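tool_call predict_complex ligand=zinc ion
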Amino acid sequence: MNATDAAETARLRKIATEGVRAMIALTGDDPDRAGLEDTPRRVIDALIDMTDRPGDPAALLARVFGEGTGSGQMITVGPIPFDSVCEHHLLPFTGRAWVAYIPAGQDVVGLSKLPRLVDHFARRLQVQERLTEQIADAIATHLSPVGVGVKVTSTHSCMAVRGVRKPGAQMTTTALRGVLLTEPAARAEFLDAAR
Ligand SMILES: Nc1nc2c(ncn2[C@@H]2O[C@H](COP(=O)(O)OP(=O)(O)OP(=O)(O)O)[C@@H](O)[C@H]2O)c(=O)[nH]1
Ligand SMILES: [Zn+2]
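tool_result ok
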């Protein structure tokens, strides 16, 4: 972080602290009471922590292993647990993702890179449909595979603990590319693996 960034961060943290104090006051509580004194800092740090966007898709998917490892099979990883933040309410949504691809040639990526890719797109302000598309698009762009499948199921705390209050209701989203979109058998294989 350079000096300009540090000054801007300090400025925004000051404003955000006032904002969180105002939100506490809106709940009818006293932001100056001992138990709440340090809460604005904790809230800001928690939000930054939950949106740290680890990794970089191009770098994550850059190292491939060849020598006959791929050869046309579907590779599926899941369920991959993830935490994200609903961009409408800044409340968490948490769930599981399945990520599959069929390499175009012999090259495959390391197993761990797919969960890392999920975290990269999950740990930011999100909606689930965009999360699902971004994971699929990153694999399509960086690996140029024959097919890609991404399925995400999650529960949104904004729908569980407030508003409509339906705890346990799950949202499922699926993004398919290439043969997983066009070939019913490939699609069925993925959806069977992602249960
Ligand atoms: N499609 C989609 N909707 C989401 C997601 N996360 C939260 N939402 C919805 O975003 C919507 C925001 O609707 P608004 O009417 O603007 O906000 P609201 O008054 O808080 O809505 P309620 O939750 O119905 O009380 C709600 O219906 C949420 O359930 C998501 O990942 N995808
Ligand atoms: Zn929400």
